[in-house]
Amino acid sequence: MDPLSALALAAAVVAVIYLAGRRNPLKKCGRCGGRGMIRSWVLPWRFRPCPGCDRSGEIRARFGRS
C-alpha cells in the first residue's frame, strides 16, 4: 500500500470515529437539549427538572451511566 492511500484510509477512519461520537444519542438529553431543565407547559416562565436526565443534561446509557 502506498503512503498516500494509507494516509487517506487513516483520515477516513478518524472522520468516521469523530462523526460517530458527535451523533451519539446518549451524549445529550433529547427532552431538555442538555440544559437539565424543561419549561413547564402550564406556567411557561417556570422550569422543572428533566426526568430523562435527572438534571445532568445527559441521558443514561442502557447498562449504566453514559
For the largest beta-sheet, the strand count, sense and barrel status come to: 2 strands, antiparallel
Count of distinct structural domains: 1
Chain-averaged pLDDT: 82
Strand line-up across the major sheet:
1-2
Stretches with pLDDT under 50, minimum 5 residues: none
Order of helices and strands: HEE
Relative strand content:
5-15%
User: What distance separates the N and C termini?
Assistant: 39 Å
What's this entry about, in short?
This protein has one domain (3-49). The protein has 1 helix and 2 strands, in the order αββ. The protein has one helix spanning 3-22; strands at 37-39, 47-49.
Account of the 3D structure:
With 66 residues, this protein is α+β, with helices and mostly antiparallel strands. It has one domain. It is built from one helix and two strands, in the order αββ. A hairpin with a 7-residue loop joins β1 (37-39) and β2 (47-49).
Task: Name its key features.
66 residues; alpha+beta
List the helices and strands and how they pair.
Layout: H1 3-22, E1 37-39, E2 47-49
Antiparallel strand pairs: 1-2
